[in-house]
Amino acid sequence: MSGGEALEKVIDEVESLEHELIDLCSRLIQIPTVSPPGESKEIAKFIQSYFSSLGIAAQIYEKVEGKSNVCAELPGKRKGKIIWLGHVDTVPPGDPSSWRHDPYGGEVVNGRIYGRGASDTKGAVAAAMIAAKALSKLPRDSRCSVEFWFTTCEEIGAREGARWLAEEGKFRGNVCVIGDSEGFLPEDPVIDIGCKGIIRVKLKARGLAAHGSVPFLGENAVEKVMEVWRQVRKISDFRLNVPEILEPILESSINLFERRMKLNESQKLNLRRLYHFPTVSLNIIRGGIKANIVPDYAEAHLDIRVTPGADINSVRDHIINLVKQSRVDGVEAEVYSLREGIYESPNSPYVKILSEAVRRVTGSLPTLRILTGGTDGIHVKQVSGIPCIGLSPGVQGTAHTVDEYVTIENLTAVAKIYAVYPLMFKP
Predict the structure, then answer these.
(1) pLDDT for the residue 285
(2) What is the model's pTM?
């Protein structure tokens, strides 16, 4: 079978499996896999059983009982190995009454499949499973080897998922396709060649309790932490030195955002700063125990994102200096998480081949982007040393939201791309 014939056959095969793809995605959504705690045994058994029915070997890996990861191996005779990786756990649905569609119903309505995890990332998981089925029907000499990894606990740090698997040396391949992204459209496709790094900081303020009627006798810890926050937020004015090779990608990432989102003038100005300056968000604040007591303790949790290739340690150091410059007594900053971002060169042959696979399926070359959030690709790249590229059917702005959904059009297109890439791949 020639290369062209194999490509046409696998694309047609995925097309013929669209109804199964829809059903598979719906059934995955119907299995709750909330993180925390990250229990995934039921869905792992479901995935393993699916592959076993196809004659494809699938093994379960657990660091902690019940937090299951699955690997399905599809050997090929061509040189090279691709890793595909997506997570099966989800964030909680919140109040189910706020959903118009059952968060665990997997309802199919007007070309969309609704439910928690549909876009992040059970749609991608279903697309990968169908791609594996389509590839399994081709001769081995038409494809390279592929390992499909379905991991857990991504939403809570991946300590029992991809991070642990990377530390255990389980990932071995030439490139990893991360099935965790958003914003794909068949007429305007996108692939991620990197993602931002993250610094998480806890500001801890200690004061002196007093009766609320005589606040001058106490020291208000909430006021202290807010005063320091006003200083620390200036980190968003700290200019980053980003790699020159990424400049065109940062511009295309911003342009993609502008095409997809309706922004006011203030948002447009902030978008222009998105990659050349850190972003900082005050996401949690705690303080006080009663309405008539001056609080003697308060804390604030900050989420800072840093463009890959920039010096993340200099950002951390500047945050510490800003806390000191506030000159507020009794406040300290604890950096409790720091992870550098990752990126691949836009000139990487792996990026170029995946881009061509996207063009082959959709008719359009993809926009190359740096993802503003983080993915399990950070663990695969930094621990296992394997280049990572992101591609997913995820719909822009739906992950972690009420009435999360994925479109059938996106699912089918991305399943085809997942199936085509191993046929075109060259290490």
Answers:
(1) 97
(2) 0.93
